Amino acid sequence: MRPVLPSVLSSQLSEFIAIRTGLYFPQERWADLERGVAAAAPDFNFQDLESCVHWLLSAPLTRHMTEILASHLSIGETYFFREQQNLDILGEQILMPLLQSRRQNERRLRIWSAGCSTGEEAYTLAILLDRLIPDLAAWNITILATDFNPKVLRKAAQGVYGEWSFRNAPVWLRQRYFTERDDGRYEIQPRIRKMVTFSYLNFVDDVYPSLSNNTSAMDVILCRNVLMYFTPQRARQVADNFYRALVAGGWLIVSPTETSNSLFSSFAPVTFPGAVLYRKRLATESGSRVGEPPQQQSFHDMGVAPPLPPVVRPEPVTEVAVTRMAPAESRPVSPPDEGERLSRMARSSANQGRLDEALDWCEKAIAADKLNPLYHYLGATILQEQGRHDIAIQWLMRALYLDPDFVLAHFGLGNLHQSLGRYQQARRYFGNVLTLLHLHLQDDILPEADGLTAGRLAEIVTSLLESLPELAETSV
User: Fold this and answer.
1) Which of 206, 279, 203 is nearest to 457 (CA)?
2) Which residues contact residue 122 at a Cβ distance below 8 angstroms, ignoring those fewer than 6 apart?
3) Looking at the predicted structure, is the pLDDT value of residue 3 above 70?
């Protein structure tokens, strides 16, 4: 396709797209830009490209409209067991040592498929773990899969795929993990589908890492064929956020065409046969100076995925019912800032991946101030990161008992029920969020939300509601 727009208009469009979406279209890619906008034009009720471009440059686009545009400008192509070599390295060189190091103490693992599109990569990870871990039920496994496009998230959550998604996949994949339907497509087994939580997240506008969207303390992040579409500045911002989202020693995996020592200068590049992966340095390791290329490491030169320091496991949470608290005047009262200090310790530990320790601090914060709903909410986010979803729901219910208008508690309940396949309940809590947000101004910063505004949360919840699949209710 040869560009048809005047050069001046193409230049203006490219600059507009970079500002609004972070997507990068230099002159040599103007034909791709035109192709994407032409595909988006019918969604905006335009039949011809140039009229649509003039409208885009002059109309006050909402974020939802911007995301529709961006979804047509990025290629969401993916398939099962894509880039087999990287997956072999992930399984044999990273996950196996990591699982062995944690088998005797904390049986947990957190992986994020960032920019998951229609879900093939996230389900590939679930299947990979199913084959690596014989006692899978004894582990707390989190596979978070995010995208900014509600349409692809809805398809991902349904877990139904055609032949094209299995190109280059091993023969055993469909036989062991899918059920063929009458329409000739293949549906993933429910137990594998339940291992993955699909959620909305926009790399450009949203806050991450954050306990509020379960994007902190990751062991592995896969973000393949996503950063290549961003401007260099936006790609660097996303890479820095990924660095903060990983635990010390955690891994970032990008596609072979996206490897870059300058973009990932905060990481230690590790060379495997045929691939370069990026590892977050341990606190004891020195990083590169600004402007200095990072030192290349070989996986032979280093221990991969060392275990986290041992922590004291708190007593399990046994109180599951929502119980009314004694009157405030009859309870001992700690200094007003003691609970806040303890909750900061909980957050700090959680951000470093020391989740047992974080929960211990959180329980101490609650003991210091039992009527503070923020501490119950914080504990619920930590429990969610531990994969203890049902107990996390109970903690959120306690937070709502103390503050029925606590927006993020409703949001957390919606997310948890969504991850458990309880879509009707998820819709109810997401609906509560939208109702409560009407009490806020668009720019109001919500408590415990890492700077998230009321207006942005409303947009996120709207997208989440659009992403929920039309499936029969399932229970776990």
Assistant:
1) 206
2) 113, 116, 143, 145, 156, 196, 198
3) no
Structure tokens that stand for 226 in this block: 């996503």
For 302, which DSSP code?
S
- For 106-117, the DSSP string reads --EEEEEEES-T
Contact indicator for 377, 412 with CB cutoff of 8 Å? yes
Predicted local distance difference test score (pLDDT) of residue 313: 35
The tens digit of pLDDT for each residue in 306-341 reads: 333 333 333 333 333 333 444 444 445 555 588 999
Q: Which residues face 277 on adjacent strands?
A: 270
Three-state SS at 218: strand
For residue 93, give the nearest of 385, 301, 310, 355 by alpha carbon: 301
State how far the Cα of 377 lies from the Cα of 121, in Å rounded to an integer. Answer: 31
pLDDT band at 359 (very low <50, low <70, confident <90, very high): very high
Give kind and range of the element (H or E) at residue 207.
none
Tokens of 2: 């040869």
What pLDDT, on a 0 to 100 scale, did the predictor assign at position 63?
A: 74
Residue from 427, 412, 437, 414 nearest 471 by CA: 427
pLDDT score at 299 = 47
Q: Could you give the angle at which helices 373-385 and 389-402 cross, rounded to 10 degrees?
A: 170
For the stretch 13-22, pLDDT in tens is 999 988 888 8
Per DSSP, the residues of 221-290 read EE--SSGGGB-HHHHHHHHHHHHHHEEEEEEEE--GGG--TTTTTTSEEEEETTEEEEEPPPTTS--PPT
Is the Cβ–Cβ distance between 235 and 263 less than 8 Å?
yes
Pairing of strands 218-222, 246-253: parallel
